[in-house]
Automatic annotation (TrEMBL):
Intervals holding TPR repeats: 390-423
Cited Pfam families: HTH_3, TPR_8
Protein name stated in the entry: Helix-turn-helix domain-containing protein
Entries under InterPro entries matching the protein: Cro/C1-type_HTH, HTH-type_regulator_Rgg, Lambda_DNA-bd_dom_sf, TPR-like_helical_dom_sf, TPR_rpt
4Fe-4S among keywords: no
Origin species: Laceyella putida
Alphabetically ordered keywords of this record: TPR repeat
Domain HTH cro/C1-type: 7-60
Transmembrane regions: none
Gene3D superfamilies referenced in this protein's UniProt entry, alphabetically: lambda repressor-like DNA-binding domains (1.10.260.40), Tetratricopeptide repeat domain (1.25.40.10)
Entry annotated with the keyword Nucleotidyltransferase: no
Length: 434
């Protein structure tokens, strides 16, 4: 990458127009020639432009000296200690991706940038870095870079988890799992926690997610991390609910609440209230469940946590659909769709759209139900939400069967079987360990 292209890249990273950069320096036409590689910039021009961009001239030089490489190494080492990356260092790391560096340096840069953008909830930026990494990172981890690849895989999995592509997230987490013997208990606990969450979404046998969350619990207990213990207990409550062990779920929540109250970690209170609501909803104690859900929403609003409310809205939609309270259903559907679309939570977005389609069917608007469900199956496939695609294809097959449209019913049942076959996650713990 020539100097002009580096100037263009940094200018675009800073969302700076050409006119803003060249003001008081040169003409836009001259900058364009430099950025296109048609004019060689003078030393005076480079100094002036770099000052405007807030970088050092050596940051964009073609020099591959040890001094420049050492600076990149220092940025990597500093980030590993502090988890802080300032703007200038961020730009330097991004430019380094277009230069000649050893694999160990490259994979560290990719991992740092992905993690940095995920921490700032900049999902698109993280996805862009991931796509760049696919051009230079090999499929197999060299033995001498096992630790570096572990963190790369873990953070790649986090990208797909953030967009609810649990199939691809599982793929990368399982790659990290194969290298997990090289890392410490803290990072192993994080990986097991993440694996428990993706298995929770994909595995038919829900005991597999409890297997991973229990491993995570034991590691945090060994490390003495009380806050992390509370988080795992809340997750285990969700997973006990999925395994129809509602009293065990409530027991986990009681333990988590005790820790949270002792440590005064109020951020977990909303999670606890939501999971109490789920347990009581599944036990059939609906009024108690609604009280917990409403308390959860109040707590989320109090701390400005918008994104997690999508789960609570989902359950309230289901409750009020059952009660045929359409005003409440419409209220919670709108809020759920807004959050899911804003935060690219495609699983929840498609699921809320499914609920809308189901309302058409309940009002005997069969053609609307069929049309919307067919469109949603396509969207689910596009977003790699094959569990939802499978469910909708099966439901549509049953719908056509009840209407005596047997050929269409067979087509959609076949489609559901195809989606089932394309799901890569193991269905039982025995399959996982065989």
């Amino acid at each position: 990458m020539h100097i002009g292209e580096k100037i263009r890249q940094i200018r675009m990273m800073k969302n700076m127009k050409q006119s803003e950069l060249v003001e008081g320096i040169c003409s836009i036409a001259y900058l364009s020639r430099v950025e296109n590689g048609k004019s060689k910039p003078s030393a005076q021009f480079i100094r002036a432009v770099c000052q405007k961009l807030g970088i050092a001239p050596e940051d964009i030089s073609d020099d591959q000296s040890n001094k420049k490489k050492q600076r990149i190494t220092n940025i990597i080492n500093q980030y590993k200690k502090t988890r802080i990356l300032n703007e200038t260092d961020e730009y330097l790391l991004k430019l380094a991706l277009f230069e000649s560096h050893l694999l160990d340096t490259l994979i560290n840069i990719y991992t740092i940038l992905i993690r940095h953008y995920l921490a700032d909830n900049k999902i698109k930026e993280a996805q862009h870095i991931f796509q760049l990494s696919q051009q230079s990172i090999p499929d197999e981890a060299p033995p001498d870079l096992a630790v570096e690849f572990f963190y790369y895989y873990l953070n790649c999995g986090n990208i797909f988890f953030a967009t609810q592509d649990y199939i691809k997230a599982t793929d990368y987490y399982e790659r990290a799992e194969r290298l997990s013997r090289w890392v410490g208990d803290k990072d192993l606990a994080i990986l097991n926690y993440n694996l428990s969450l993706v298995k929770q979404h994909l595995s038919q046998d829900k005991t597999i997610c409890l297997h991973y969350s229990q491993k995570c619990y034991e590691l945090h207990k060994k490390l003495g991390n009380e806050v992390d213990l509370a988080k795992v207990l809340i997750t285990q409550a969700t997973q006990y609910n999925l395994n129809h062990k509602y009293n065990q779920a409530i027991k986990c929540l009681d333990q988590a609440l005790e820790i949270v109250l002792r440590t005064e970690n109020v951020n977990f209170l909303g999670m606890i209230e939501y999971n109490y609501g789920r347990a009581y909803q599944l036990k059939g104690e609906i009024e108690t469940a609604i009280q917990h859900y409403e308390t959860c929403l109040h707590l989320r609003n109090k701390i400005g946590a918008d994104q997690p409310k999508v789960h609570t809205y989902r359950e309230l939609v289901l409750i009020y659909m059952e009660r045929k309270d359409l005003a409440k259903v419409d209220q919670y559907l709108k809020e759920g769709l807004r959050i899911a679309e804003t935060h690219q939570q495609w699983y929840h977005y498609i699921e809320f759209c499914m609920f809308k389609a189901m309302l058409y069917k309940s009002h005997f608007k069969d053609q609307l139900y069929e049309k919307e469900t067919q469109k949603l199956i396509e969207l689910a496939v596009e977003r790699n939400q094959l569990n939802l695609a499978k469910k909708m294809a099966h439901d549509l097959g049953r719908h056509y069967y009840e209407k005596n449209a047997y050929k269409k019913a067979a087509d959609y049942y076949d489609m559901a079987l195809k989606f089932e076959g394309n799901l890569h996650a193991p269905t039982t713990l025995a399959d996982r360990e065989s």
